[in-house]
Amino acid sequence: MTTEQDHSTNPQVVLILSGKRKSGKDFIASKLLLKFGEEIATIIRLSGPLKSEYAKAHSLDFDHLLSAEAYKEQHRGAMITWGEEKRQQDPSHWCRLATAGQWVASKKVWIVSDARRPSDLVHFKVYPHVIRIRVECDEPTRRKRGYVFTKGIDDSDSECGLDGVTDWDYVLNNSSDRDAEKEIEKLIAFVDEKADSIGDADVA
């Protein structure tokens, strides 16, 4: 059963990152956090509560699911299926869990590092300043970072659910032939211009 979303605590800006596996979403998110500062910003990983709840339900090591690549890949397929069942019951289930708690509510800038489905974008669109960012990366660069196509994962909704979106607010190219720092500086400038009411979070 779907539970009504609580928007009683609004961040001043929500940055939503989307991209393929090994495109560098976590890298970009960490750079954005460094630019804004942890005193006003936080990274929200929608996969965090999914991994936590899946680990509890299946008696797995949660820390390994977060940090050990081989362990995570071993369970990825089953975890995606399990998480999708929860999402079908309530499309905002994982978004709501990821943003619960005072540590999130107290931050002016939310950096959502891993939006994967249209329902993720819908969940956050009610906030006053939402900037949707697509992280693009060519396949050779992704392969250098460890990407190997896996049937049932890379052709599933968890990786392809937002491929049809064409109206991203910003597209950041994170391929190896680009200067990542310059690309991020351009993004920061765009954020400042787009969300002019960001106030103390201004980094220009």
Structural account:
With 204 residues, the chain is α/β, with parallel strands linked by helices. The chain has a single domain, classed as Rossmann fold (3-Layer(aba) Sandwich). 46% of the residues lie in helices and 13% in strands. It contains 10 helices and 5 strands. The protein has a 5-stranded parallel sheet with strand order 2-3-1-4-5, with helices on one face. The longest helix is centred in the middle third of the chain and has 21 residues. The termini are far apart.
Strand order of the largest sheet: 2-3-1-4-5
E-strand count: 5
What is the count of helical runs? 10
Strand content: 5-15%
Radius of gyration: 17 Å
Shape: globular
Instruction: Indicate the percent of residues in helices.
Output: 40-55%
Order of helices and strands: EHEHHHHHEHEHHEH
Protein name: Phosphomevalonate kinase
Pathway: Isoprenoid biosynthesis; isopentenyl diphosphate biosynthesis via mevalonate pathway; isopentenyl diphosphate from (R)-mevalonate: step 2/3
Subcellular location: Cytoplasm, Cytosol
GO molecular function, one term: ATP binding
Which tags fit this structure?
204 residues; alpha/beta; Rossmann fold; globular
In short:
Helix content is 46%, strand content 13%. It has 204 residues and is of the alpha/beta class. The protein has a single domain, classed as P-loop containing nucleotide triphosphate hydrolases (Rossmann fold, 3-Layer(aba) Sandwich).
